[in-house]
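Hi C.,

You asked whether I'd gotten around to modeling the 337-residue construct. I have! Everything is below, sequence then structure, no commentary in between.
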Amino acid sequence: MNQIETRWIILIICMLLPAGLAVATLWIQWRNWRTRSWQQTTGRIDSSRVSSREVRSRRVRMSGSSPNTEFITGEDIRTGNFAHVAYSFAVASTTYRSNRICLMGEPDGTVPAILKRYPKGKIVTVLYNPENPNECILERDEPGKIREAWLGTAILAAYILGGFVAITEGVDWLGTVLVDPSRAPAVVFLTVFALFVVMLSRVFTKQTRAMKRWPTTEGRIVRSEIATTVQHHRRANRARGNYDVTMYVPRIVYAYQVGSHTFESDNVGWSTSSNKRSTAEKQVARNPLHARVRVFYDPDDPAQATLSPSMGMIPLVLWFFAAAMAVAAIAVGWLIP
């Protein structure tokens, strides 16, 4: 009974992601529907440039197994490049200003493409809410984009449900062929984990090959310091107590120019946060402020760049782990008496 309940709990947790995407898409669709009653007027692009800023996001992961499961809430920090397009327009005798292009997050296209579409001084059509002209956009979200969002949500839900059925049915089937049926969940877990690591290694390998072919330009370190975040650990077993851990994050940001645009990035290759300040200090020391660096950038999207196109030993290590998990699955299922 407990195993069945655990399966359904895992499924419900996994389905929270497509459910959240569905709610977000429905919200965007409703807001897009509201713009049908908005009016149009003529505006002018006052500013069109690259805006680089720090973006913080939270992520939650689980560690351990019941009853000692921990829910770990961490914070990711990254430097992102965005198209900052500011425009002004007049309604009656009042001038309004905005920098929102569309309702659904960032508009289509790379940063340079968006800036090319809206150069400074261009006369544009502005859609605005007649009841509150501060609500305004330059582009309506295309119905095709919303349909794609719904399709993506449906595909994700189907993958989760298909994976859930395959894994649970696989566990039941393995129970009939193994000497010890109680080992079936462990065999399935090890097999799925090995396949996931193989896929991850292939992604890293493909990405590395592409980055090594990127063109290069000269850049300069504009920020080299250590930031701190707090990692919250919440335990399912409240008797063990909750606790926080201070994480030290090396913030190494460099600026580089491609064409007429200046971008910033913090992708230096392999870099990670740690609960030890000395680890972050070593990474910062290798990239001093104002140092000149060689920047590899994506020619199709110059906002994406790195200082090290090589993943080092990571793909090889991932292949090793995948092989080890596969051997462990065979051993647990058939070799260990």
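If it helps when you're writing up: The first strand starts at residue 39 and ends at 63.

Thanks,
B.
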